[in-house]
Design brief:
There is one protein chain. By secondary structure, this protein is mostly helical. It is built from 18 helices and no strands. Helix 1 runs antiparallel to helix 6 and helix 5 packs antiparallel against helix 6. The chain starts with a helix and ends with a helix.
């Protein structure tokens, strides 16, 4: 759990919070405008999401340790390459930064996070929800603190040196932790998973497995769903659409937060204050939903997350009122608190562990693509209607669909049980 948490924290240079610190330096260095850089960021994020399904399958084939180490090397190499950026013409700059952001997002936010979460989820069964919730809470606080640390690194000798220091730290420190402490599963380490009386290590590799797969034991049971089976299951979409919706809309609101505040008559300092109380609400909810995931079907949490988003999105448009601010903070924090359980513990509980990487990779892909689409969608609606409230109301369609799917999934479970 500790090793996987460190690995997830190490993905911060590829997260929006980590990239945003370097935005002004990239604008002044490349010669691109803020809008052009934002377009490159959205294109790169969308591109990275398309490849995460393959990344999830690689985790199943080669193990989380191999994939996490490869992602760390890729993230480090990308940081070094970006640290050498120079003034560019607009067309070349858009291409270079789109590719750079794509590599940054794929290796950091995508693959390293996915491999680390998958490893932690593979190691626990009976207490998986609580463990992943605790890990996600620590990661959340670390992501919030890292921008200040990155600014300190920039102050040493500019953004180029900061990225190179981060790249060196990733290879030497994080890479060493991954090689030393990451293990595919309890079975691969020759021990039993918590809550079970047997280990699958004696089963050996599956017949016809590739050379790479020969080194990995069979995980889970023969009843575990494949990726194709999960994609045909309404429960997968009930678990995935709420987190993809929050990734899209929360990223969009964060991306346009200053402009949204100006539209509501709030100053920059007033509008950004919303994020502090959201964090205080989300952490206890994260721990609560993690505890609940070990005891009830995750579809209940998916339904709750959808309901909170149906309230959250419209009330964000009323942050200039006391009641709107309170409602938005509580529901945003609650939705964020449900996010961890649905992205870490829900998939293995519903679909098993055998193809966890491949199934989780599709969920992660949907989240990343959603985070790329959201800001562009909000900008488009705002340009047509003249305000962001219309975009917020239109965004409620997605969690409404997710709520219907959650109810359908709950009915499916009851029928199977009966």
């Amino acid at each position: 759990m500790v090793a996987g948490t460190i690995g997830a924290i190490a993905s911060v240079p590829g997260q929006t919070a980590g990239v945003s610190v370097f935005t002004d330096d990239l604008i002044s260095t490349t010669g691109l405008t803020r809008l052009q850089l934002a377009i490159a960021y959205l294109v790169g994020t969308g591109m990275s999401g398309l490849f995460l399904g393959a990344g999830g399958r690689a985790i199943d084939r080669h193990g989380s340790r191999v994939v996490a180490f490869a992602a760390t090397l890729g993230l480090s190499a990308t940081l070094v390459a970006l640290s050498a950026i120079r003034p560019l013409s607009t067309p070349i700059g858009l291409v270079v930064m789109s590719v750079g952001f794509g590599c940054l997002r794929f290796s950091g936010q995508g693959l390293l996070t996915l491999a680390s979460r998958t490893m932690v989820a593979q190691w626990f069964d009976r207490r998986r929800g609580l463990v992943t919730a605790a890990s996600s809470s620590v990661v959340g606080f670390a992501i919030a603190a890292c921008p200040a640390l990155f600014l300190m690194l920039i102050d040493i000798n500019g953004f180029r040196t900061a990225w190179r220091i981060m790249a060196l730290t990733l290879v030497v420190v994080v890479g060493s932790i991954i090689i030393t402490f990451y293990r595919v599963s309890p079975e691969a380490a020759g021990i039993k998973i918590d809550g079970q009386n047997r280990t699958a290590i004696a089963d050996g590799p599956e017949p016809g497995a590739s050379t790479a797969e020969q080194t990995l034991p069979i995980l889970g049971t023969e009843h575990d769903a494949t990726r194709a089976q999960a994609l045909r299951d309404v429960r997968f979409w009930a678990l995935t659409i709420p987190v993809a919706a929050l990734s899209s809309t929360a990223t969009a609101v964060t991306f346009h937060i200053v402009d949204l505040g100006a539209e509501l008559g709030l100053t920059d300092s007033e509008i950004v204050r919303i994020f502090v109380p959201i964090a205080f609400v989300s952490v206890p909810v994260t721990l609560l939903t993690g505890w609940m995931t070990d005891r009830v079907t995750p579809l209940v949490i998916a339904a709750a997350m959808s309901l909170t988003q149906l309230v959250m999105y419209p009330t964000i448009g009323f942050l200039d009122t006391w009641w709107g601010a309170i409602a938005a903070v509580i529901t945003w924090g609650a939705a964020q608190g449900c996010f961890s359980s649905l992205t870490s513990a829900a998939i293995p509980k519903v679909f098993g562990r055998r193809h966890l990487g491949a199934i989780s990779g599709i969920q992660m892909s949907a989240m990343v693509i959603g985070s790329a689409i959201g800001p562009a969608f909000f900008a488009l609606v705002q340009s047509v209607t003249g305000d962001y409230r219309a975009a917020l109301w239109l965004s409620t369609v997605v969690p409404a669909v997710a709520l219907v799917l959650s109810i359908a999934g709950l009915r499916h479970d009851r029928q199977v049980t009966a």
